[in-house]
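Extended Data, panel c. Modelled sequence:
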Amino acid sequence: IQSIPSGLFNNNVAATNFRNCFDGCSSIQSIPSGLFNNNVAATNFNGCFAYCSLLQSIPAGLFDKNTKINSMESCFDKCVKLTTIPSGLFDKNTAVTSFYCCFNECSSLTSIPSGLFDKNTKVTSFTRCFSFCSKLASIPSGLFDKNVNVTDFESCFYKCSKLASIPAGLFDKNTKVTSFNTTFRECTTLS
């Protein structure tokens, strides 16, 4: 598959599961705007675009109508050409509890938008969320301030080899965390 047609799922209003839908579609370079606008019953986008190794961008508001999503695990896992994340991408997904491996091995990703997870107050796991993002140079201040229910940051920034610093107070509001295992392991640029 080289492209996704616009309106592909427009008539599938009862669809609840998009797990691994485009997993391994290594020739897809873009996602049409509003692809999931009519899929208001959808709850699962785990691995939806995993291994889309030529995907370069995510349209703004891609998940705005999918307010029932409870998991984004591995959604963009190994999208190695992805360079940016649109601001407010998850603002309407307030039921999400896990971002496990969501942007794992997005090795061209250079930045994270401020407030990316501000509306995701039910999240409990950011395990490996940005691991192996080898071009990520910084973390926005207060990135996890609203995620007060998180228990796990295991390997969240593992092998982010260009990460130069950690913002002061990054985890100040995350008082329920039980694991920071390998959170910044092999972040070799950190001084």
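The two ends are 43 Å apart (CA to CA). This feature is highlighted in the accompanying rendering.
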